[in-house]
Amino acid sequence: MITKDSIENLKTHLDIVSIISQFIELKKSGANFKACCPFHGEDTPSFVVSPVKQIYHCFGCGIGGDSIHFVMGYEKLSYPESLEKLSSMVNVALEYDSDYKQQDLLILTKINDYYQKLLVSQENASNYLQLRGISSASIAKFEIGYCSTSSDTIKFLKQNFLNLADAKEFGIIDSGQNGLYARFIERIIFPIYALNNKIVGFGGRTITGHNAKYINSPQTKIFNKSQLLYGYNLAKETIYKKNEIIITEGYLDVVMLHQAGFNNAVATLGTALTNSHLPILKRGEPRVIMAYDGDNAGLNAAYKASLLLTNNKSNFEGGVVIFTKDLDPADMVVQNRTEELNKMFLDAQPFSLFVIDFIINKFDTHTPFGKQNALKESNDYLNTLNPIYQDEYAKYIVSKLNVTRNMISTNVRRKNKVQLQQVDISELEIIKTILENEFLLDMTLNTIDINMFETHKEEFNMIINDKDNPILRGLLLNEDIKIYNEKQLKLKLIMMLVKFYEKKLEQIKYGQYEDKIKQIKYIQKYIIKLKMGILVPFKSN
Ligand SMILES: [Zn+2]
Q: Residues 5-17: pLDDT tens digits?
């Protein structure tokens, strides 16, 4: 792990303009620099870099952040990888803490070499791979190996003076009542690489009929199944080039798909797709294809993955391919059905349609009761989607269930453009001002209430709860929005309070309130003080 101190030190050496200039051409524009956004196609520059704030922001696609974020996005690197890249760009060294040292990891590479050599000498193991149609080129590419008995592995570790404590820590061996034993016994071995191209664990398939067909390394400091995708290190380049990733359920599927030319295939490690996988999938924003088996387990997994990939927050493009019973992608490659596979991937069923079908299929829609439930559940799902898709998929539900469109309710809120008047600008100016100045932020929080904002409640709330939101970053770099000094801000807050109280007065005048007169007098007193220029803090009662 890179130490926090050395990251902070590196950050002080980063100048965002000179960093970004090394990747794209920036043109000076006022206090900032501009370019056509490298993350979305455009002809007029809406990508702004601020040397003062050391951030960038694209007004077209909303992407933005600091130098580190830029390198992550532009070079498709993980956070630590981009730190390493920046450290060499500005020639400032990083320090690593002793959580685990790079040389400790060598033990995984050495045991991997050993497994690979064993495969060559073990006829039953190489026969098995041959039988499955795996070519020797694939064996080399994926560094497929074989582990024999427990005592063989331990003998190898000891003879090569490898640290047994490390071997235990990284899940190669463990200790039980009878001493040390190897975790992988008589299995085909698939080394698993992390995003940084280092081996972090292994997957093993039994060839001697062991109970568990597949096992993986246990959870270790560096091996976390739900954050890894098998084959990603080899598939990465094609994923970016093709802008597509195929996610399968097994190691052999990945190996065989690559063998047939689908070099963008990866697999989850015997687990479902989880939230923790999403950061990897977001890299380069490829179309995602989930290629799953047609059994119940596969269908359920595809359903859950589709929910994960389509909810409003993630919103991935792509779809599901289901392999009919007794047929998996590996079998199809062996049978030379590559063209057919290609067509299946092209025709993947969009995630949302797959989910809606899955939901509707649970019910007997020939009965009114079943139809009603199918309608309700699919409508509930519809409302979790990004608003643009809701209308589109509402039509699909209409046709699938043969109901009328008005039976489906969407929660799409259409903001009325005409409403964007002066009030918006001054609300945004207040928000921008207090975003820049902590003292004025405190003053504002002590004086007004969020409900006094008419159109920009959400942004005001973000200052407190979601300060890194791109909307706020865009606001900071929007030169059309002014920043107030303390005196100007006070005046704006007073105007806001007066407006709020006057509205309240109206409500009281025309409403049914007890103590009407008393309340009116009370509020009028506030308004008078405010109009005299005294900033009286808001009290809810
Ligand atoms: Zn952009």
A: 889 989 988 999 9
58 CA to centre of ligand 1 in angstroms = 5
**Among candidate residues 57, 223, 199, the one with its CA nearest the CA of residue 115:** 199
Q: Say how far apart CA 99 and CA 493 lie, in whole Å.
A: 51
Q: How far is the CA of 470 from the centre of ligand 1 (A)?
A: 12
Q: How far is the CA of 13 from the centre of ligand 1 (A)?
A: 26
For the chain, what's the residue count?
541
CA of 421: how far to CAs of 376, 426, 476, 483, in Å?
39, 9, 20, 18
How far, in Å, from the CA of 469 to the mean position of ligand 1? Answer: 15
> Model confidence at 387, in pLDDT bands (50, 70, 90)?
confident
SS3 state at 247: strand
> Cα(525)–Cα(517) distance, rounded to whole angstroms?
12
| One-character DSSP codes across 51-66 | TTTTEEEETTT--EE-
CB 540 within 8 A of CB 449: yes
Ligand 1 mean position to 57 CA, how many Å? 8
Residues 490-522 have pLDDT tens digits of: 999 999 999 888 888 888 877 777 778 888 888
Q: How far is the CA of 70 from the centre of ligand 1 (A)?
A: 12
